[in-house]
Amino acid sequence: MYPLLMFSFFLILTSFSNAAQLDPLQQIEKTTFESPEKGYSFDYPEDWQKVDIKGFDIVLKSPENQEGQSFANLSVISGPLPPNVDLEVYTRENVTHLVLNNEFIHNFDNGTAEIGGVPSNWISYNRGDDLTKIVQYFFVKDKLAYLITEGAMTVSYNDYKETFDEIIKSFKFTN
Which residues are the signal sequence here (predicted)? Predict the structure, then answer.
């Protein structure tokens, strides 16, 4: 299993709570994250907070409510692929590991998309007692593997979906 998935999975599991949610439609202003060394950039809402976590290119969390709780986050991890590993192998190995090591995953779905002009595979699932919905995008460019993970409380996921979609659509390779 490639370590990119498990870091992101851990982050999602530790980032949510059950308090009242913010209105994500109020998030209008954007800022750009750029990773010159990894060769990509994307836009995200200016009021989302960057969180430094070792092993991640970037972790973003939605604005906190008055109790200091955040209800959605997005992370990007990238790294080199071993020889002879393509998008399909990368995705299959991560999904297999995820399913085998997490008995509380349900409502699993998958498909394909395009991110930054390259093909990607996505998976979505709910955790445990349905509190968390997670969507992950796997893609490969120039022997680097990328994993974008977005997640939110299940009851509020659709409130953040437009924001997540805008972030994904803005992803572009800069080299």
Answer: 1-19
